[in-house]
Amino acid sequence: MSSNCQFCGHAHLTPTTTRYIHQQSDALLIVEEVPCLRCDYCGEEYFDGSLCVSDSSPKPGNFAGTKCNACI
């Protein structure tokens, strides 16, 4: 991944954690403390592709090492 923000072009992305929310139909998955890179300027967040939830099956297990807050 480029070290520049793809949204605003700023050159500084900082490793941090964030809340990830995924909705599919009536199902909602909220996961706390998901690792990401956040742009210091605009706040855009980037997730590692291995953390992404498949559109066909949102599962808390896809977020190893994170805390699943709600899976309804």
What does the model show?
With 72 residues, the protein is mostly beta strands. It has one domain (13-71). It has no helices and four strands. The chain has strands at residues 13-24, 27-39, 45-46, 67-71. Strands 1, 2, 3 and 4 form a four-stranded antiparallel β-sheet that branches. It is elongated and about 35 Å long. The mean pLDDT is 78.
> Separation of termini?
33 Å
**SS field, number of helical segments:** 0
The level of helicity is under 10%
Specify the structural class: mainly beta
Strand content: 35-45%
**What letter string, H or E per element, gives the SSE order?**
EEEE
Count of individual domains: 1
Largest sheet: 4 strands, antiparallel
What integer value in Å does the Rg equal? 13 Å
Mean pLDDT: 78
InterPro entries: Znf_MqsA-type
Organism: Lamprobacter modestohalophilus
Protein name: YgiT-type zinc finger protein
Characteristic key phrases:
mainly beta, 72 residues, 4-stranded antiparallel β-sheet
Please provide a brief summary of the model.
The protein is built from no helices and 4 strands. The termini are far apart. Helix content is 0%, strand content 44%.
